[in-house]
Design goal:
Shape: globular
Order of helices and strands: HHHHHHEHHHE
Number of strands: 2
Helix content: over 70%
Strand order of the largest sheet: 1-2
Structural class: mainly alpha
Radius of gyration: 17 Å
Amino acid sequence: MNIFRLTGDLAHLLAIIILLLKIWKTRSCAGISGKSQILFAIVYTTRYLDLVTTYVSAYNTLMKIFFLASSFATVYLIYVKFKATYDHNHDTFRIEFLILPAVILALLINHAFTPLEILWTFSIYLESVAILPQLFMVSKTGEAESITSHYLFALGSYRGLYILNWIYRYAMESHYDLIAIVAGIVQTVLYCDFFYLYITKVLKGKKLQLPA
């Protein structure tokens, strides 16, 4: 554990809390991509299967349970509780084009050809592109509510801080995981345009708008 990982985890928690509060308080999931949330639920399910086989720490266990529970709760809110407010007309990204390549890559490039390791690797690859349906939806509608923008910024910050965590661990512990690093860099790059717009517009009180 180090300050970069801790702040990265807190940014991740903040992103999820912002999203859940936005949906619950407004009683609406307008502007939220259900498909991205499905992908995140798949990511956490396949990554945290080791909950039943491996104990690392209370912190680690609680974080895993929170991410699992919150991801399925979000999917429930979007597709069941507030289904009438879900904008399926704009949430049209074909997620099979993200899932299938992640499966193939996990089978070809992994640390060990075992079920849990392949599923963990699949989750890393899939998480790197899981936000694409949300970014595609924002691009398609041309704008995002401020609260949705805050969610995306916190989520992107989590990945950026994890890159600093990997740099720190390599410098201090000579430890690195090339699969996680490359996937994390890909994920952070996907947020670059959004970060620029967030800083130059949202933080100045303007609505975030992307070219449709």
